[in-house]
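Pipeline run #58 for the internal structure catalog. This entry was flagged by the ingest filter as a single-chain record with no existing model, so it goes straight to prediction. Upstream metadata was stripped on purpose; only the residue string is passed forward. Reviewer on rotation: M.T. Logging verbosity set to normal.
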Amino acid sequence: MMNMDEAIAVTQQYVPHKSPHQLAYEAEVLKGYVTVPSTHLGNMSMAKWRLIADLYGVEQSDFDKVKTSFIYKYQEPERLQLSWMLQAAIIISIISIPLYLRLIFKK
């Protein structure tokens, strides 16, 4: 949004049938949808998602059904559970290290 001229030049390469004036107009119109006054670019808000849903003609009931499941939710990592073999190996290591050190320094 900050370098509109560069964005128009790049878009001109992919849409050669539109004039730079048409692309500039489209950019100005879309800028109002992208930069909602209450949020900064990159931030999410339900108002912004509702505006996008309205643009695509999504009804309120359909929007309410999916709005809670389409945004990323942090899942707590599962608690680490050590297997019995790993627990046994740790116990044997803890017991055998002092015995090994005693054997080495006994000489």
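catalog note: The radius of gyration is 30 Å.
catalog note: The longest helix spans residues 84-105.
status: ready for reviewer M.T.
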